[in-house]
């Protein structure tokens, strides 16, 4: 169980019930639980979708697509059953927000899934939970049982005549399955490999039926939007970036942790104010703004509002909200190697550029970091990454290439310092391993 | 479908809506490279070789998964696209062992070709390559993981194409690897499709590997002669100490009825040709023992004895047994020899399907037979009896893939739960031996339903028949279970349908040809009864008009001491029909065969014959598709059956030209021959002249007999040009003689299946190795297996 942190700048929406015992349905009901579903049952599906669309809620999984818009793509009539899928396969390094939602507020996810079901006319929802989050799936299972017992799920929910079933499903340990179509494959019991698109899930998804697939945080936000109204939610953030989101601050900060901040919150302020600044004796070197897949920002680039569009402008991405602080004790070559080891391990192997590219990048970085690098390697690292970028079957290849390209570009000098058989100047610090990853 | 206009590399292209961009480009002559894309298999988008630039799309797109749309602007040769391809090849070669000099695929490897066309000359990788040891998955399948580029073609062709699903992918990322279904080995049909479809040398064949290089072989396009389906095949031939060796078969050019399909026998079943038991010189029985002799001695003896017996005892004392694996020309020649030289109608062969009944029933319904190609396109198929997966691998492939790709409906009726029921839209189980009742029921005899409705209710049968009757286009296939009157019932049913066509399934490579060529005691070529005086009588100057003896009757005749000579060409009646060998002890027996078979063992003269890969001619497959067989190899000491028959006739003192119309002599009287008295050679010359064909110059040229077949056998007058070009042409039975009704018990299905064959398979080391290696799945297991 993670310790909760807080800061006065926080605007608690999704994290409103954190630490308040809302895993128990009675407590959840006291805290306005299942009110949104009641409200939604009285609304036309179109108005639910309109409300979510107008709130400016954008996918919290990383891609940042307007949630309401995504729902509106689902055909009204479908010969095959429709499905709602909650993507709780949170695996992005540096990201640990869905985990808190499942841990403290599982009913909000159930509620969000049900509302999505009402909006698109689905009668079945799946909550897919990362395999390593075993203890969370127990919490979720209990919540689902309670929701059934109280008539919030099952046949004729709340006497409305609307049937809705929710199932949980555990992952088997693949980062790749966080990709929506791979998740569907996995849920169907197959190898977790992405599908060819089009067709998109909204048209042909799980078991061939139209499917809405949203991140857990996205769905957990939905009940709050219905209760508070689209306007209220939108105003919490910046234009086109409605609401708040959970930022997972990690690295050598004084107060690392998960904070819910309005969209567009300044990154510099987030580090030095919310996160309490750098730990004693350390200075900031770089920031990973949204999980390991996003290009790094240097110390000079951090005065930026944390929303999808602003980060895009500075050549990075808001991603999944995993803000990783890299301090001066970290060797950027080793950092790149650590990231690449992850992607090499997690690549599903389906397509050539990702399968082979991540492997060669890892091999090259391993040798390079251990002092066997040659000058040509530096360019080759970039060349290889660029050969992967935009050419892989799914975004995992991009996710591996983008940070590498940014590290090689922005920290070339550190690579040059490894040349000519010189040992890593920061090796003794063992930077990455000792960095306190958020508990 | 409506056409879509798009621009590829500035070229205006029009293609039907729904076409994939990669295919549209190909149709415009623009190559978009790919490894994982393979026509008729599911799309992968995995190799990323086919990335192209499509206007308005930020990223490069895979041409293999993109469906064309109106006004699409595509670039396939920009710097960006070229770099993407080059980058992909570089990555592929990173872990590739580059052992091309010792790799089987070297010289015909798609990765090599692509590297030359699109790749980089140098590698930028200096780290150690990933290595894994080679694995043997079966006697014929080897897997070399480092060479594998993971295009998943093998996985798909095995699963989607063969419906065997013996291959899969294990692990992930760079550790991903193709794996066999039984952990470390394969249990499958061993068809070798995975090896054939592999673009690199990752999957190699146990029968072929390390034997040769592609450019050292001669490649002969011919027809496979293992089963009755007649797959087109390209044989790789190499010199060896005893002549030439066939080292492999494949059909990479996809030119025939089978596309690239071949089964285990078609791919590996050649080494029987070099089996140590193969006969290399003629044998004559001296003092009770078969002893080697020269060909001259053998011909002399055979010719003399046959002439003596004919002259003293009459043709009635001589019987001839023909073959189901010799060419049409040989079969035709053999029966002509029997009838015109030996003067006997005692000629028969191992019958496995009731073609005469089919012909008889088809009278008045011309064009009611389907070709192998038509089957693949048919929207609906009905199969009664037979198990094509085991007995007709190509037919099964066509059925499966017709269902998969064209959503065709398959109606199955069988006494066994055959594997094809996985594709069937309905499967009706019947008690064994009740196939004829199904035919009767289909023909409208409702009372027959009682005999077949054991597992399915009579109402369901009636609904089923109503559904069939509504099928706008139906191909009806039936095995040897349907004979005699049952064939007539089926044709009655088919004739009432809007458009129904039939395929009668025979078991051996040229079963159909043997029937068409008149290897029957009562039927001439084209199913003309011997009793009716017609073309053949005129042309050959007389044919014995009394119907001869069937196989069983020959044995009885021999036992009674009335059969003085038996001439067996490429058949083993003692083994196949279970005839008592001692009944022939009073007969002079001549056997032509590859091996000292059970029948050859009792012969007085054994003549070593060439097999169907060692001679040229034509074969007719079970559907009636006529195809060319080209001589690919040769084994020292053997002669083709064609040559042997001619030489025996010559040794008997016959004017060979009467038997084989060769030579130029007849041309001189062209002028006089237009009248009523035109002689036989003249008719032949007139026919040749009309078709612009030259007379053949050698008595050993099967083409000379083919001329006569085309002239006289109904349905066989197909395009000579297409035939010689290696194309398949359907010989409809229309115009045939009236056929006849035979005793149904004369039909004896072969006991062969995919893995075993009594005739050639038992001499194939490769086939035997596979047989010993695997256990056969029971039908239930097959259906359940995923």
- Major beta sheet summary of chain B: 7 strands, mixed
CATH superfamily of the largest domain in chain A: NADH-ubiquinone oxidoreductase 51kDa subunit
- Please report the number of helical segments of chain B: 27
What Rg of chain A do the Cα atoms give? 22 Å
3D shape of chain B: globular
Overall CATH class of the largest domain in chain A: Alpha Beta
Task: Describe the overall structure.
- The complex is a heterodimer of chains A (439) and B (786).
- Chain A has 439 residues and is of the alpha/beta class.
- Chain A has three domains: 25-236, Rossmann fold (3-Layer(aba) Sandwich), CATH 3.40.50; 244-327, Ubiquitin-like (UB roll) (Roll); 332-431, de novo design (two linked rop proteins).
- Chain A contains 18 helices and eleven strands.
- Chain A has a five-stranded mixed β-sheet with strand order 6-5-11-8-9, covered by helices on one side. In chain A, strands 3-2-1-4 form a four-stranded parallel β-sheet, with helices on both faces.
- In chain A, β8 (284-288) and β9 form a beta hairpin.
- In chain A, α9 packs across α10 (230-236), α14 (352-372) runs antiparallel to α15 (375-388) and α14 runs parallel beside α16.
- The longest helix of chain A has 21 residues, at 352-372.
- Chain A is globular.
- The model of chain A is unreliable at 429-439 (pLDDT under 50).
- By secondary structure, chain B is an alpha/beta fold.
- Chain B has four domains: 3-92, Ubiquitin-like (UB roll) (Roll); 110-205, 2-Layer Sandwich (Alpha-Beta Plaits), CATH 3.30.70.20; 283-352 and 511-731 and 750-760, Rossmann fold (3-Layer(aba) Sandwich); 355-504, Dimethylsulfoxide Reductase, domain 2 (3-Layer(aba) Sandwich).
- In chain B, 30% of the residues lie in helices and 17% in strands.
- Chain B contains 27 helices and 30 strands.
- Chain B has a seven-stranded mixed β-sheet with strand order 15-14-27-26-25-16-17, covered by helices on one side. A five-stranded mixed β-sheet of chain B has the order 2-1-5-3-4, with helices on both faces. A five-stranded parallel β-sheet of chain B has the order 20-19-18-21-22, covered by helices on one side.
- In chain B, α8 packs parallel to α21 (641-651) and α8 packs across α24.
- Chain B is globular, with a radius of gyration of 28 Å.
- The two termini of chain B are 35 Å apart.
- Residues 667-680 of chain B have low confidence and may be disordered.
- At the A-B interface, α13, α14 and α15 of A face α2 of B.
